[in-house]
Amino acid sequence: MKTIRDQNFQGKRVLLRCDFNAPLDENGNVIDDFRIQQSLPTITHLLEQGAKLFLISHLGSPKGKVQDSLSFNPIRKVLEKYLNQPVAEVSFKEAEKIEGSVALLENIRFNPGEEENDESFAKELASLGDAFVNDAFSASHRSHASIVSLPKFLPSYAGLLLEKEVLALEHFLKHPAHPFVAVVGGKKVEDKLSFVDAISNLADFVLIGNLLAQEIAKKGTVLKNPKKIVLPLDGYPGDGKELDIGPRTRTLFAEKIKDAKSVFWAGPLGLIEKKEYAAGSLEVAKAIIGSFAFSVAGGGNLSAFLGEYNLRDKFSYVSTGGGATLAFLAGKKLPGLEALGYYAD
Ligand code: 3PG
User: Which domains does the chain carry?
Assistant: First the structure.
């Protein structure tokens, strides 16, 4: 896999795929800019070399339609603050006319061609640049046009963040010290369900959040390693639902984590956006930190949560990826990495 360190981009137009899918509050402001900050080393490296950048990302799921609430205005402001220069937001059709060294293309998922992985859309996009850089490890589990088709039309490279994520997770994948405990919570349960078996082949225990447990029950899923699966014992109620793990589950999970030597955690265990449902995730975070295990946490919401409580640097590594990290650790081939030649090396 070639990385941007293998090439000089002086005078080149570079299409740079980032993941600026940051959590927003109800007023549309960025709650946590971790993913944007993590993209900065690649952006500045390329700018310092004298490249012209077209930044590409998605935000949310607008399903191929322009949706004002998912425009990049809040992301653009954060980028301008960190880069200390104006960043224009443009549709890809207008991008060529833009002056200056950085342009932010509008939310790529406003175009139906992105999620449909339409090659003619990718080709049109590719005509804007001389090279493509993928720094969106966290979106590399998606077979979308800006992830898998752009590399067909342009010389392509891994960005510094993508490289860093892969190196950190590879280490974790190849040499996990045991007991190895995985904690899988959060939303997007359909994505996660398919990884539980694979993760349970690696880990000694897989602790499951309420939503995922409900999905397992609803689908009648027969799990491969049931003895390793630890389901929640109770929920903490709110709005007639279970919005956090309950006290017995917190004790059970902390007990399993206590002696772990490696912990991987994807997805929070409650509705952490509301403080009253964050206690379960906080107890799990504290148990992981207290275990002194090699610890990896992943996912936009979980990372924002750890940031809010100043716990990020207490973990060995915080990945920008949620689903992508889980898929990578489950041994699935990520289409975005495959397109960069990672599995051919
Ligand atoms: C994420 O938030 O995990 C990535 O940005 C991918 O987003 P997606 O699940 O909407 O494809």
Answer: 4-163+336-344 (3.40.50.1260), 178-292 (3.40.50.1260)
